User: What shape does this take?
Amino acid sequence: MRKFNGRFVILVLMGMNIYNNYAQGYKMDTPIMGWSSWNTYRVDINEALIKKQTDAMVYNGFKKVGYQFVNIDDGFFGWRDEKGQLHSHPERFPNGMKVLADYIHSKGLKAGIYSEAGANTCGSIWDSDKNGIGVGLYGFEHQDASLFFNEWGYDFIKIDYCGAGQQLELDEKERYKEIVNAIREVSSRNISLNICRWAYPGTWVKNYARSWRISEDISPNWESVKHIISKNLYLSAFAGEGHYNDMDMLEIGRGLSEVEEETHFGMWCIMCSPLLIGCDLTTIPEKSMDLLKNKELIAINQDPLGLQAYVVQHKGDGYVLVKDLETRQGTKRAVALYNPSGKWCSFSVPLETLELAGVAEIRDLVRRKNQGIVKDVIEYDVEPHGVKILCVNAEKRLERVVYEAEQAYLNDFDDLAKRSRSVAFMPFEDASGGMTVCNLGGHKKNYAEWNDVYSKKGGRYEMKVFYVPAEKKQYSVIDHKIEVSVNGERFSFSNLEKERSKGVMSVAFEIDLKPGYNVIRIGSRYTWSPDIDCFTLKPIHQD
Assistant: This one.
């Protein structure tokens, strides 16, 4: 069985600010939607099969609700000739890949293709497909890019990392940078490129990709779906501005229970993952098809803000996630009450936790039914493996009070586990939300950043930073500091508690915020920070 796989998407638009974009009326690219061949067929694909799935996408109404891409994964390769020219498989794709792209385009859809960052594809390693040997991009970046996008006319490419990583142990950042630059040099088209590294590869990825995989390959079982959701719970700050954390292809219609399918699709939608169907579209069950065409769930995935929902409450087994819809700092928000456990979970969510107040209208987006109005608190019992995906429209929007460390953009973060002491998420039972961020600091680039600290009027605030003294390691000196930067103004604290047994501690001080969005950073330029739990903001009303 192939253990790892992925999708990676590249966007040519760089250096744009989300707030400026909306002020100028810029329309951001939303997560891609479509179908991909890998989940059901792996390398056993051919021209007739792809055409059949293309026809089924249109016939079953997926195109009408926004699914656009038909992506051909591993399995189309034939060989490289003596000039290095890549050829498709003569039996599986006898008419070549351009004919197939043209067919997909003739149906009003977009065509996607696959390659490998190294020399040998994942199919050659995990599926014993000898045609995948020597056909990767390594050494043929410009040549293959011109073939895929200029000659064959494909619109999307997924670039895997089996040959580059498992065989050659190449550097991810440098390897993908080389590939992306080659694509940009040979094609002026807006190619959607998906990087497949089976873990969040690092903050560099946003400069090269429209989306990136954050986990191993998905499987059609609950444990796999739950694991991938858990991997993405605290990655919301790394998505946005037209770039997305890819939770892998959908396993809807491939054996999950009805409840599990609703959770699978609902969480992919609210977490703004690309939506790529992975089942046989000619035999998909009716209920699965209706779920995949749920316009209200699709709308929160395709919301023009392009935001990934983040965790605002974690009590017991349940997680509450939220994100703005349509307007930042508006009164309409999408909310997920997520129960990954094997038993019923009771949720009680104060509206103020969602930064809302007054009377709120509730709509269940999975059932597509209004749930009436609430005041003060939302309460539901959610079944095992289940989720409630709600649209909450309230009278008032409140300023946020608590900013969790696990909601921050961690500038030095990756999930590749190549360093022994890298910044990471660390559970701590007594922390707000049960989670902290550890190993911040050590150098000036290893900081946590919140770039969405909103104040309606600006002014003076009390800021309180909550921290947990870090564990003392062998041969280490406890000289931890907390350095806070508020719109560039720096505050430093060194007289901190050193005993971890004391639990969550805090430092408080006064800051000035400007009206609108502010940027706050926490780190330590020359030594380590203690584990950071969260910070709170309280306006100081001056006479």
